[in-house]
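Tyrosinase-like protein (Pinctada fucata), 417 aa
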Amino acid sequence: MTSLLTLFVHACILIGVNSMLQPKRVKDTYENSCLHNAVFNFNSSSTNYLEPKCQTLFMDKYTEMKNFLNYTDMQMNYLYSLERAVLRKYEKKQNGRHKRQTGMMARQECRTLSDGARGALFGAIVDLKTPTGGMSRYDTIAGMHSFAAYRYAHLGPSFLGWHRVYLIMYEEALQEIRSDVVLCYWDSTLDFLMPGSTQRFTVAFSADLFGNGRGNVINGAFANWQLPGGGTLRRDIARAQFPNPPPSLTRPGIVDLIATDPSITSHTQIVRGGTGFTDPDTGRVHTWEQEHDNTHVWVGEIMRDVVAAPGDPVFFFHHTFIDYGWELFRQKINPNGNIDLRNDYPNVFRQKINPNGNIDLRNDYPNVGGFHAPDAPMFGFQGITNRDGYSDEYTRMSHLIQLVVTGVVDQHNSFTV
Ligand SMILES: [Cu+2]
């Protein structure tokens, strides 16, 4: 009797473990569960643990990324170890669906961090950049973005989810160095509110925060960073490289629009390839991704280059804010948290990617649309689908749980730099 009971308990544990390893999906294809399983169990370049069909599927993707980035097995192992850590947390969140977490650290504006908290976070970033065993973990993570840049991570609905997962992975890497840090965001609407010609003197780009904003970065925590492609980290903030229109920081009005406008209620209305919304300043179709582009251009130099951009740590502070703005939207359309927003993933991949209609990017990147398909594996994160990037689990992993829509934007506006 005892042994039967033991057996029963064991079986339960096994079933429990199994279901933990196989998160529920909206649409679980053979490809997705194979890749998920492969990533989850990946710990060396050996794939003998996979059945032959799955082995081929996985190795094709593994080799494609490895060759494109010219990474060593050690670098690939590192990326997969991070993805696995992210997946483990995801599944933990899934199992604790209704549990409210207390005492969880929340991401906040970088300028509102205490000196100690900012020192800890920036210190971890600098540590990540320090080469260990012949590689910089920071550069290994940054390079991954270049692989995904043109095809999966931009110009469509996966932009939001892809970058969210990417931020979580980066945060995971930082937490392996210091468990008490979370990302902070650069709310560039604050700097936008400074009169135009004074924006370049923002404290954000000073020795106290991200380092100087023009030329080689020679002060602050990220001074003299070397880029993997050669050269030093450099910026050219608030310079009108494209004087017409000049680069703009994130506009508070756009944040308000997506966070509070009651007529913008689906993801299709904020992503590229969808219907977009009307830009109050230009009257043109606009999206949250396009608004994010502007700040990249405003920072200039490395940040302006979609492939090299994560080489500037400001990339992650900016994206953390873009992720935050998206979260304001998500909470607006799902205030009670009872809608699975994976089902609101726009199925727009057969439409023109460029809503202005002047360039059909499908001609340049013939498969760009397909790469954004809801149930396609998220590029570089084979164990996750594009649609999964919209799930609540990733929100809850993003240290955004304490977000409250009401009052947040006002707080920003009255915050003085
Ligand atoms: Cu990006």
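The CA atoms of residues 75 and 190 lie 37 Å apart. Confidence is low (pLDDT under 50) at residues 1-24, 350-355, 357-368, 401-417. ok done for today
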